[in-house]
Specification:
Layout (H helix, E strand, L loop, with lengths): L30 H14 L7 H25 L3
Length: about 80
């Protein structure tokens, strides 16, 4: 079994949260959500070593984009 390189509530060394843009309305995904998404990317890419920060940042950005799409969709369908 592969080792989980992302532990609960821990970001990879060197990972930083980018400042929120005006579209993000200060949404920051939880570390658990980011770790889960980053881990699945890691596994799906064949478990390459040395890409923890890239996986973390990509997962964080994708979660923010998903949230923005959801918020945008809800906004257009309000009565």
């Amino acid at each position: 079994m592969k080792q989980n390189i992302f532990t609960k509530n821990q970001k990879p060394a060197g990972a930083s949260s980018p400042g929120p843009s005006k579209d993000e309305t200060n949404f920051i995904p939880s570390p658990d959500e980011v770790a889960r998404k980053a881990y699945f990317t890691y596994v799906n890419q064949g478990s390459p070593q040395g890409h923890e920060v890239q996986h973390w940042l990509k997962a964080e950005a994708e979660l923010i984009q998903e949230r923005n799409r959801t918020r945008s969709h809800e906004f257009h369908h309000q009565t």
